[in-house]
Hints:
By secondary structure, the protein is mainly beta.
Amino acid sequence: MISNPVKLFQTKRFEDNRGWFTESFHQDRWARQGIICPFVQDNHSYSKSVGTIRGVHFQRPPHAQAKLVRCTRGRMLDYAIDLRKGSPTYGRHVAAELSADNGDQLFIPIGFGHAFVTLEPDCEVIYKVSDFYAPDCEGGIRWDCPGIAIDWPLPPVGPLLSPKDELLPTLAELASPFHYDGNPLQAI
Length: 188
């Protein structure tokens, strides 16, 4: 059986009258589930408005990044897009709702683009990455690319984007630096 390269983790919370506690990352436990990834940097973003889209982003080798994403305030829809040349699922995506309430996390391996859209105002996202930010290696795909065909849940006013994200190329214009490893993308 081939395992899915993108994994959704539902973290266990220990609750009492004070609130709850969780281990958001445990290297040995995650390695037993096939995630062997040295994380080197944590990133934290804040999005003020509903409908804020960040992505579709990736970093090219030699500084390609795997990501472990969680929402610590608010609610968002998180996407992983297969960008591996030769993959039977090239250009397809999976999505998961991540929220402060559910505590779920999405692991996005190297070879996948990453994007999210906020579903509530004042949304905060924290994610671990497996390589340091390298501006000369950053890349991306347009949020509205017909080749990936994401049906974004947007407010009537439309998305809020960065100027840089508005200028990203389409999937058809991408010379993907990633190669298929034999694990097709599956539903999560």
